[in-house]
Amino acid sequence: MKRILLPLVLILSGLPLFAEERPPNFIVIFCDNLGYGDIEPFGSTVHRTPHLNRMAEEGMKFTHFCVTAGVCTPSRASLITGCYAQRVGMHLNKRDYHVLRPVSPFGLHPDEVTIAEELKELGYKTAMIGKWHLGDQEPFFPTRQGFDYFFGVPYSDDMTARIWNQDGSHWPPLPLMENETVIEAPADRDGLTKRYTEVAMDWIEENHDEPFFLYFPQAMPGSTSTPFSSEAFRGKSANGPWGDSIEELDWSTGQLLDQLKELGIAENTLVVWTSDNGAPIQPEPDDISRGSNQPLHGRGYTTSEGAFRVPTLVWQPGTVPAGTVCDELSTTMDLLPTFVSMAGGQSKSKLKRDGHDITDLMTGVEGAKTPYPYFAYYYLDQLQAIRSGPWKLFLPLDSFPRHPHYKTNNQPNGPLLFNVVEDIGCETNVADQHPEVVAELSAFADEMRKDLGDRDAPGPGMREPGKVETPVPVVMIEE
After folding, report:
1. H-helix or E-strand spanning residue 130
2. Pairwise CA distance, residues 392 & 419, whole Å
3. Coil vs helix vs strand at 385
4. Do 144 and 277 share a structural domain?
5. Cα–Cα distance between 394 and 86 in angstroms, integer?
6. What is the largest distance, in Å, between two alpha-carbon atoms of the chain?
7. Cα–Cα distance, 379 to 94 (Å, whole number)
8. pLDDT score for 169
9. Are the CB atoms for 433 and 419 separated by under 8 Å?
10. Rounded distance between C-alpha atoms, residue 237 and residue 246, angstroms
């Protein structure tokens, strides 16, 4: 009799039947090369993004959310590992031309512990649907890095069949893969956003009864001057192919949000929508045919704010306060420790990480502040800038490829200091007015160099990437 009455008493009292509620699901939508000013919640007046508008209205905008590199591979490595790319050897230097190319011997080291592996340890189902770009050799596949399921391409969709002139390597036709099998080559680039969305929704439908983590790195708008979109969106925007692809990404997001509500799991699912780096942009600021980072300064592939600061929305009805804005500095490195914390776990990895638990920021805890005393901006292996609080210091450099502010190859006269909160466009150098800030941030730069090095002086905190001796194409080129 007691065994029957106890649950009945709990039900009537409104208390949960189990000691612990089910942990939240996590979805990360990671766009490719989409700029700060490319969506309506962040100021676009050209691209129609009603579903992202709704996401902002029902959730939180992060206005100082940063990636850790202005280019694909290192940016993705940071999200997956919770580390600066330099720490996990994925900054690449010049050995692999800034990002991983097809048939590269390098990839994310199998000994690194990924966000998927951490959550899998806590009982989560895990999937990665979209663009991987952390190694196309078998030991580096997503399915070897903690993901139960993979559907997508192993690198950028513009890396199609050709001979790579820099080293003479043969690139295969772009492979679309399911788990470790190529199912289409070349992949239909026009249909990637639609196809990814359909596969993601099928996977959510199949796994929504258990805690799940979906990493959803979209292919678009991508690196090409003419992004791809499906027929339903082609030619429909006011900004050519770039706008078409963004409006399809918005549609894709709306499909997922609607599905979460239909399945009754919206209130138990945290969705993070962001980009891997800023837009490449055109030379003329009013030409947004390759994206917009406005009102930030600079283009993607640099250490400018326009490259590192990305439009970010966080949504979980009932947990993330609706219609709110977070102006505190946070980064993609924070997603791993935050998700593990929200899932009720603790990392078992002994490897050093750089990210922080930002649950308080995401849930709108009053008075919550950035966990970063300082944040580093690396270009490949070169430390180019440091941020602390509202201040960003561009360091004097002997050489500075793609440096966003120095225009010549001559040594600049001094550092450049900007208040990136009050001077969002980095228009006024105030280094002379604040020598104490310059000194403090210069000291922070020295601390970073002691850990992760600078240029030809690797730091002791750096770990090696994975490497295979004889890389082979995922799809062999037909003779």
Report:
1. strand 125-131
2. 6
3. strand
4. yes
5. 19
6. 86
7. 11
8. 78
9. no
10. 9
Give the chain's domain count.
Answer: 2
- Our CA dihedral for 75, 80, 86, 90, rounded to 10 degrees, sits at -80
* Residue matched to tokens 């007046």: 45
Q: What pLDDT does 167 receive?
A: 72
What's the pLDDT at 475? 75
Tokens of 287: 């030409």
Q: State how far the Cα of 304 lies from the Cα of 448, in Å rounded to an integer.
A: 18
Nearest to 45 by CA among 226, 286, 300: 286
Residues 172 and 285 in one domain: yes
Token reading at 137: 């050799």
In this predicted structure, what is the pLDDT of residue 348? 82
**Cα angle at 104 between 304 and 310, to 5 degrees?**
25
| pTM exceeds 0.90 | yes
Virtual torsion, Cα 206, 211, 215, 218, nearest 10 deg? 50
State the angle between helix axes of 50-58 and 240-262 in degrees (0 to 180), rounded to the nearest 10: 50
Whole-angstrom Cα distance, residue 260 to residue 59?
15
Count other Cβ atoms within 10 Å, centred on residue 460: 8
pLDDT, tens digit (0-9, with 9 covering 90-100), for 358-398: 999 999 999 999 999 999 999 988 999 999 999 999 998 87
| Rounded distance between C-alpha atoms, residue 229 and residue 249, angstroms | 9
Residue 261 contacts by C-beta under 8 Å, 6 or more apart in sequence? Answer: none
Q: Cβ contacts of residue 168 below 8 Å, gap of 6+?
A: none
Residue 325 tokens read as 């804005």
Question: Which residues make beta-bridge pairs with 184?
Answer: 176
Nearest residue to 190 (alpha-carbon basis) of 161, 216, 219, 215? 219
Whether 420 and 299 share a structural domain = no
Active site amino acids: 72, 133
The domain of 408 spans 375-458
Return the axis-axis angle of helices 240-262 and 192-207, rounded to nearest 10°: 10
Residues of the chain falling short of pLDDT 50: 1-19, 408-411, 477-479
Cα–Cα distance measured from residue 467 to residue 111, given in angstroms and rounded to the nearest whole number: 12
392 shares a domain with 357 = no
CATH number at residue 421: 3.30.1120.10
Cβ-Cβ contacts under 8 Å for 400 (sequence gap 6 or more): 379, 382, 384, 406
pLDDT digits (tens, 9 = 90+) for 320-373: 999 999 999 999 999 999 999 999 999 888 999 999 999 999 999 999 999 999
Kindly state whether residues 452 and 323 are assigned to the same domain.
no
Residue 408's pLDDT is what? 42
Quick one: the chain helix, strand, coil %, rounded to 5?
Answer: 25, 20, 55
How far is the C-alpha of 196 from the C-alpha of 136, rounded, in Å? Answer: 19
Q: Is the dihedral of CA 126, 132, 136, 140 positive or negative?
A: negative
Phi, psi values for residue 302, rounded to 5°: -130, -170
